[in-house]
Predict the 3D structure of the following.
Amino acid sequence: AQKVTQAQTEISVVEKEDVTLDCVYETRDTTYYLFWYKQPPSGELVFLIRRNSFDEQNEISGRYSWNFQKSTSSFNFTITASQVVDSAVYFCALSDPAGANNLFFGTGTRLTVIP
Amino acid sequence: NAGVMQNPRHLVRRRGQEARLRCSPMKGHSHVYWYRQLPEEGLKFMVYLQKENIIDESGMPKERFSAEFPKEGPSILRIQQVVRGDSAAYFCASSPITVHGYTFGSGTRLTVV
């Protein structure tokens, strides 16, 4: 069965600090996709990244970076030099391998960046 | 290039009433997915539809909930005889082929009073 664990319920950092959000997943399938979404206070879901299970290269996009470690089933997300606008709930998700029809979400990490 | 449009944005219903949530997928997207987010929780898959077909409803509650995606018009998630526990944010997503091209709408926040 698919499962996504985001052990950090809430994190607070001071502006300009770096912060890493952890995501650990469980799946029996060899082919799957991992996602990160941001949910700001306004409530919508903002897509951040999709990574397939065959690509273990780390990715960087501006202040955001992702570390995919298949050996530890982790897909961690780092924000460098955090800003107040980064305050949001961040969700990690895993695709359903059977039909790739739906996503399994973690319970989210609420990040608060203090000015 | 309108995204996935959901309406209403907020919906208040009294216990026992019906709630109808609408989702218009992105242009060119023929796959629609509904998710529910209970307060302080992650999103949970409910149902996956293509035009005029329910493909996977494994996440739908067995009673009171139904979904459709007609040939013409938006997808509708219908909740009959709402109860307080139905209060949640309901998100719709659409994709052209599979989950790889997922786009979420802004959600409908249902409050049952």
